[in-house]
Amino acid sequence: MRGVPVRDAVDSATVAIGAAGSATPRLDAEVLLAYVLGVDRVELYLRPERVVQGPAVRAFQDLVRRRSLAREPVAYLVGRRGFRRLELTVDPRVLIPRPETETLVEVGLELAAGARVVDVGTGSGALALALKDERPDLQVLATDVSADALAVARANAARLGLDVAFLQADLLEGVPPVDAVLSNPPYVAEADRRTLEREITDHEPHVAVFGGEDGLRVVRRLVAQAAATRARLVAVEVGAGQAAAAARALEEGGFAAELRPDLAGTERVIIGRR
């Protein structure tokens, strides 16, 4: 691909990426090319005759090859992912933020003014930073067992200018008193590992993905720890088909459970109140 128009470059990359199994090959190709050229995706439509040439050709080919052959996620290739109103830096040290987690953000936005809230297993900081961005009055603490993940989250907070506190911790260990506990924990069952796309199994951190035999090992630990605190609200993201079991865990911990669906209608967040 030497000195070819944007339109042709996108078309060629779309074919290669689609043949490798991506569900969104044209979107992937456009994001990668826009990244290489240093422009917004809309610029590709406004100037489809623009010629891709020089170093940009090699850079684009390399990214398309990595997306196609190694199935590296686009978010890791370009180093960023949009979440709510924020653009977050992401890399293989952290889970890529998903739209489903916005349901958990919505729960946090309902908290009383000045509430103390902890985001357990913050990863890139997506949940904690979105809450602080949209509700500056909240006192937000973000924890993660991974020092690498916290480094990414802290860097995002600094770049975005959001005042969130961070703590390396295993779930709630060492966390000061809070009013609410929010978490997107690892919840994929080990039995489902073989059904996942290579983007997840080959590239995303397994500690942030897999939650034991039935996927709820971490959820149960978190609920048990939260039950021993004075937190009056616990909200946890879970996978499809896990809502009933997670709700039982909350009820056994002394919480009244409520199910909150995501935009696709999946029972995505379990809320415990007391």
Written description of the protein model:
The protein is of the alpha/beta class and 274 residues long. Helix content is 40%, strand content 18%. It has helices at residues 6-19, 25-37, 41-46, 55-69, 74-78, 102-109, 126-134, 147-160, 198-201, 217-227, 243-252; strands at 4-5, 51-52, 80-83, 86-89, 116-120, 139-144, 165-168, 180-183, 233-237, 256-261, 267-273. Helix 8 (147-160) links the parallel strand 6 and strand 7. The model has no long low-confidence stretch (mean pLDDT 95).
* N→C terminal distance: 62 Å
- What structural class do helix, strand and pairing data support? alpha/beta
- Mean of residue pLDDT? 95
Q: What topology, given as strand order, has the largest sheet?
A: 7-6-5-8-9-11-10
According to DSSP, the number of beta strands is 11
Number of helices: 11
- The SSE string, one letter per element, is EHHHEHHEEHEHEHEEHHEHEE
Characterize the overall form: elongated
Biggest β-sheet strands, sense, barrel: 7 strands, mixed
Uncertain stretches of 5 or more adjacent residues: none
Report Rg: 20 Å
